[in-house]
Design brief:
By secondary structure, the protein is of the alpha+beta class. It has one domain. Helix content is about 35%, strand content about 20%. A 4-stranded mixed β-sheet has the order 3-2-1-4. Strand 1 and strand 2 form a beta hairpin. The protein is globular, with a radius of gyration of 15 Å. Bound molecules: zinc ion. Zinc ion binds near residues 40, 62 and 64.
Length: about 100
Amino acid sequence: MSNITPDTASLSMTPPLTGLDRLPDAFARDVIAHLCGETCRGLGETVEWCEGRNDCYLVVTCGGCRTTFTLDEDQYEALIEWSESHGNALACGITRLPG
Ligand SMILES: [Zn+2]
C-alpha cells in the first residue's frame, strides 16, 4: 500500500460524515472518525463493564482493529443517536447495548 496520491475517485465514494456537531465532545467525534474512517469502517460493539455496583462504564470495541473506547452515558447516548440517524447510510457507528 504505497499509493499516497489522493484518489478523487475513491474519495467521492466515501460519504462525508454529517451530524458530528451533535456529538457532545471531541472524544465522541474521534470515535466516529475512527469507526467511520477509511481503515476500520464498521460497527463498534458496545458492552457495559462494571467493577462495582455503581461503578459501571461503557466500552466500545472497534470490529476492525479491536481498539477500545471508554464512553460515559452522554457520549453513548449521543453516539447511538448519531449511529441511528447518520450511521446507517454509512454502515458504521456503535451498537446498542444488548438487552
Ligand atoms: Zn479500528
